[in-house]
Structure formats: structure tokens, C-alpha cells
Amino acid sequence: PSESKERSLIVLPLANLSNDAAQEFFADGMTDELISQLMRAGSLHVFSRTTAMTFKGGNKPIAQIARELKADWVVEGAVLHDGNRVRISARLIDASAERNLWAQSYERDVRNVLELQCEVAGAIAREIRLRVAPDIQLQPTESRPVNPDAYLTYLRARYFWNKRTAEDLRRAVACFRQSIDQDPTYSPAYAGLSDAYMLLGSMGYDAMPPKEAMPLAKAAASQALLLDESSAEAHASLAHVMFAFEWTWNDAEREFKDRKSTRLNSSHVALSRMPS
């Protein structure tokens, strides 16, 4: 790729190999997580979840997708969730040459799924760096084991949240609350709950009175930060409440900046976020 333009990568939605449509939320969630991990690589533009999901379930050739987006590399793969085991298969494709650069499969206990995501993203970034882009780096990361039930419920909640209907947002609230019940120390579930209340109380949905929804959103975001001050998604959740409801723009700006700085160092992975 030319050095004059920012090099780019698209992660196509991971295929669900479980033969169970009810597990679609898991494949989508893993796609989100992988995108978020790769976004931490410097000097590399990773297309957003919104863009990636437009290709879900389609039969468009990879070469055509790459041309439309002007993407230098494409990642495609599949995920299989079977009981307490998770397996991800992925391959990295050089779009210009239409050839595979790398392919690998990984398997872990679902408790170590964050470690698995970091490992896959790190392998892809290393291959890009070694082959064609020496300046691209993936920031060092740490991951902690997660409660499997809480994590799966969290992914299901984000799946509903991303559907963006009032009914699905209410389902998301119920799932985020269930995730919190399963693991009261899991910060991302509180941040997600904040995001769901934020949308339910916004003008676009008008499903809850703002004076009722926004304090709940702020309380959930604040709890997420109490549990994990380094959580980029928690900072973003709190910033959205400050900006859209409290109109404390200086405070909101500070939280958005904290989100940007912690995004490179957080041990947690942010899923798809509201635009900032």
C-alpha cells in the first residue's frame, strides 16, 4: 500500500458455526471484540462495526468489498461456542494481491475469552507489521478471567442494544441487569446498562422520561468507573450523560478525553459505542 495514505483493514462478521441461530449474538459479539482490539493498533484504520455489519450474511466477494472500501487487508473467520469452549478461526487477506497472508485457529475456555481475543488480534497485527507495515504496533494488553455466564449475558445484551429499537433496548436492560447479578464486579455490564438507559431516554426513542432514564444511566456509568477507572467505555457512557442531559460540556469533554487515553491501555474491550 502507498505510504501516502492511511492503511486500512476490515474485519468481516465472523460466521456462526454452532448451527444454532440463538448463538448469533455470540458471533456478533466476538466480531465486535476483535474490531475493538485491532483498533488499538497504531497507524492502522480499522473500519467500524457499523461498516462491518453491512456485509453480514451477504455473498459479496472479498475482493469487491476491499475495492469498495479501499481496504488494504481483510480479516474473515468463524467462531464456535460449544459449552465452555470457544474456538476462533481467522485468516488475514492481502486485498491487492488477493492472497492469504496468515490463517490460524485458537481455542480457549470461555473464562479466558478476553485472552483469546487479544491473542488473535495480536497475531493479525504482527503479521501485518512483519510483512508490509513495520511501524504498526499493538499496544500491550492484559486480560482477566471473566465469569462465563456474566460475559455471555453481556454479549446478548449488546446484541439487543445494537438492534436499536425500544423493545430491544428494554431487553438489553434486562440482560445487562442479569449480567450484573451474575457478576456484580463486571464493569462493562454497568457501562452497557448506562448506554441502554441513555438511548431509552433520548428523543429518538422516547421510551422513558429523560428525568427517569438519565439518572439511572449516570448511576450505572459511575458504578462502572468505581469498579474499573481505566474502562474507556465507562468514561464514554458517563460523558454521553453529561453532554446530552446535564449539559455540563466541560465535564463531558474531560470524560471523552479520558475515554481516548484509557482506550489504549484498558484491560477491557469496548464493544460498539454510540458516536461521540
Keywords, please?
disordered C terminus, alpha/beta, about 280 residues, single chain
Written description of the protein model:
The chain is α/β, with parallel strands linked by helices and 276 residues long. It is 51% helix and 15% strand. The chain has helices at residues 24-38, 49-53, 62-69, 113-131, 148-161, 166-182, 187-200, 210-227, 232-246, 249-263; strands spanning 7-11, 15-16, 44-46, 73-82, 85-94, 99-109. Strands 1, 2, 3, 4, 5 and 6 form a six-stranded mixed beta sheet that branches. Strand 5 and strand 6 form a beta hairpin. Helix 7 (187-200) packs parallel to helix 9 (232-246) and helix 9 (232-246) packs antiparallel against helix 10 (249-263). The two termini are 30 Å apart.
- Low-pLDDT runs of 5+ residues are 259-276
Task: Indicate the radius of gyration in whole angstroms.
Answer: 19 Å
The H/E string reads: EEHEHHEEEHHHHHHH
Mean pLDDT score: 81
Shape: globular
- N-C termini distance: 30 Å
Strand content: 5-15%
> Total number of β-strand segments?
6
Q: What is the tally of helical segments?
A: 10
Main structural class:
alpha/beta
Biggest beta sheet attributes: 6 strands, mixed
Helical percentage: 40-55%
Describe the structure concisely for a colleague.
The chain is α/β, with parallel strands linked by helices.
Strand and helix map with partners:
Elements lengths: L6 E5 L3 E2 L7 H15 L5 E3 L2 H5 L8 H8 L3 E10 L2 E10 L4 E11 L3 H19 L16 H14 L4 H17 L4 H14 L9 H18 L4 H15 L2 H15 L13
Parallel strand pairs: 1-3, 1-4, 2-4
Antiparallel strand pairs: 4-5, 5-6
Helix pairs in contact: 1-4, 1-5, 5-6, 5-7, 6-7, 7-8, 7-9, 8-9, 9-10
